[in-house]
Specification:
Elements: H1 6-14, H2 21-47, H3 53-70
Length: 88
């Protein structure tokens, strides 16, 4: 479990409703990156002949990618809007 999982766990413990798909997707992405990150860095070190300096080169690239992905995030959790029909 990661520290980012604590709000989701607390919200589930304090409410009787099930988590939203967005919350589950966020938690899945969080855990997936926690699992994949060390493996990717390990492969990078192996491919470069035990040169750990390359991790310091690749890490800022991943940070820029993460920042670009976060630019679309708005305040609060995603809310699905109801479809408006022409007959209403």
């Amino acid at each position: 479990m990661t520290p980012a999982a604590l709000p989701l766990i607390l919200s589930l413990a304090l409410s009787a409703c099930s988590p939203s798909p967005q919350a589950l997707a966020t938690q899945t992405a969080n855990v997936s990156t926690a699992i994949a990150g060390p493996n990717v860095n390990g492969w990078l070190v192996q491919l470069t002949g035990s040169n750990y300096n390359n991790v310091m080169i690749v890490a800022p690239i991943f940070m820029v990618v993460a920042l670009a992905m976060m630019l679309g995030v708005k305040r609060g959790e995603a809310v699905m809007a109801e479809a408006v029909t022409a007959g209403d």
